[in-house]
Specification:
It comes from Hibiscus sabdariffa. This is Peptidase metallopeptidase domain-containing protein. InterPro entries: MetalloPept_cat_dom_sf, Pept_M10_metallopeptidase, Pept_M10A, Peptidase_Metallo. Residues 67-223 form the Peptidase metallopeptidase domain. The chain is of the alpha/beta class. It has helices at residues 2-21, 92-108, 172-183, 211-221, and strands at residues 25-31, 76-80, 117-119, 128-133, 140-143, 150-153, 159-160, 170-171, 199-201. The chain has a domain at 67-225: Collagenase (Catalytic Domain), CATH 3.40.390. 26% of the residues lie in helices and 15% in strands. The chain has a seven-stranded mixed beta sheet, with helices on one face. The protein has a two-stranded parallel ribbon with strand order 7-8.
């Protein structure tokens, strides 16, 4: 009886801990289309990953390294879909600047001039199409190549473009860096310091790529193909 009572108390304590910690984090949701090499030619599927500080870092879904994909033609274009509306309180020009800065940080991680991005207006025909939309439970969706769609929440997320976000706000640059990483083909990271870590605490900032982020994007786009020309015979 004593053991059963202790177990109930421990279970109740764990439940209360989750309730307390859950409001402290927000999630990005990566949406991935399976490669035709999985489960039959041409079949596609999507799922989500998420987690919280003090809670699980994955929802138990399997990671499949064959499903992420990458871009092969450059520059990769990006832009906002026609008719998009930024959430109240945000300056559209500032939002555009933040997006440009975020793509610039991923560009700077690759020491290859061919790896480049280009913003086009409107972005309806861009490789990476950006919009704001209601995303219950998440601050952003990022789809793997060749889909490339990128959605940012406009229903419950208080976005910030200030130098220091408030305790109930999500830093736009930090969130966008994560979702762009997914549209480039990166999986979630298990490194809590990485931009690609699946959760972001309210009021926190991750405005620079971590060594883990840089290593993984270089492995995907730089070290995966030769960059040195063969010496020509004399």
């Amino acid at each position: 009886m004593a053991m059963a009572t202790n177990f109930c108390h421990q279970l109740l304590g764990a439940f209360l801990t989750i309730l307390v910690l859950q409001p402290l984090v927000v999630k990005s949701r990566l949406m991935k289309l399976e490669s035709p090499r999985n489960h039959g030619q041409g079949q596609s599927n999507c799922d989500s990953l998420g987690g919280g500080v003090g809670g699980p870092t994955s929802d138990g879904l399997l990671h499949n390294t064959l499903s992420s994909g990458r871009w092969y033609n450059f520059p990769v274009t990006y832009g906002f879909r026609s008719g998009y509306v930024v959430p109240s309180g945000l300056d559209p020009q500032v939002v555009t600047t933040v997006i440009d800065v975020a793509f610039g940080k991923w560009k700077a991680a690759i020491p290859d001039p061919q790896f480049a991005f280009q913003r086009i207006t409107p972005g309806d025909n861009a490789n990476i199409k950006i919009t704001f939309a209601p995303l219950p439970g998440y601050y952003g969706y990022g789809y793997y190549p060749p889909n490339g769609n990128l959605s940012l929440d406009n229903s419950h997320t208080s976005w910030s473009t200030k130098p220091t976000p408030a305790g109930n706000e999500v830093d736009l640059l930090s969130g966008v860096l994560n979702t762009i990483g997914h549209t480039l083909g990166l999986e979630d990271s298990t490194d809590p310091t990485a931009v690609m870590y699946p959760t972001l605490k309210y009021g926190s900032i991750k405005r620079n790529l971590s060594p883990d982020d840089i290593s993984r994007i270089q492995n995907l786009y730089y070290y995966s193909r030769p960059h040195l020309e063969l010496a020509k015979p004399l």
